[in-house]
Write a structure and sequence with these properties.
Length: 209
């Protein structure tokens, strides 16, 4: 009943802490069982969890225990995604300065871990995983929430390791507006420019292409 961007900001802001590995495992078990009940025997999980083996392998092992086939694709996103701020989107005229946000939101707009550290951690998890029906890969939050450098290096890593890369794109009119203002092109064009679009790419939503 609300525009996507309002709904997303509201639901994201409710997350007060990261899930524990046990909670990640329980989530994956519920997801896997729901899919099996519906007749789906292979799934893709675009996983948003801390970049630790405990968290990522908790999901992967849960799917393994069910016997379901799965790609667990670990999210790396380096631009805060709660809202569009002047500090991170200086060319977007409707961006809001962090200082002008409600106080309870300011603390949630914080720099992410450097993207090279995130990619290194995910690479280590991909190469160290020893599953049978479950494999690991890479995910990106959205074409509008990733820097040029992250898009380029993630595409290169996906190609090098021959694993999928999942990314959300063109989820709302606002995302297209932001992308054209900040980078002079659509989200899909950004993904193409930096090599993300390939036979390995899984591009989700795309309702505003």
């Amino acid at each position: 009943s609300r525009p996507f961007d309002q709904w997303f900001a509201d639901t994201s802001a409710r997350g007060e802490r990261d899930a524990t590995p046990d909670e990640v495992s329980a989530n994956a078990l519920a997801t896997g069982l729901e899919n099996l009940e519906a007749g789906n025997t292979a799934i893709v999980d675009h996983l948003n969890v801390p970049h630790t083996r405990e968290h990522v392998y908790a999901a992967a092992n849960a799917y393994e225990s069910l016997g379901i086939r799965a790609w667990v694709l670990v999210d790396c996103t380096d631009i805060p995604r709660l809202c569009y701020t002047k500090e991170y989107y200086p060319k977007y005229p409707k961006a809001i300065a962090i200082a002008d946000l409600p106080e309870e939101m300011r603390g949630r707009i914080r720099p992410t871990r450097p993207y090279l550290e995130m990619l290194a951690a995910v690479r280590d998890m991909i190469t160290g995983w020893k599953g049978t029906r479950v494999r690991l890969g890479l995910a990106l939050g959205s074409a509008v929430w990733c820097s040029d450098d992250l898009l380029r290096d993630a595409a290169a890593m996906s190609k090098e390791l021959d694993v999928p890369v999942s990314v959300h794109a063109e989820e709302s009119p606002v995302q297209r507006e932001v992308c054209f203002a900040q980078w002079g092109m659509s989200g899909i064009r950004r993904l193409a420019e930096f090599g993300v679009l390939s036979p390995r790419a899984i591009v989700a939503h795309c309702v505003q292409v």
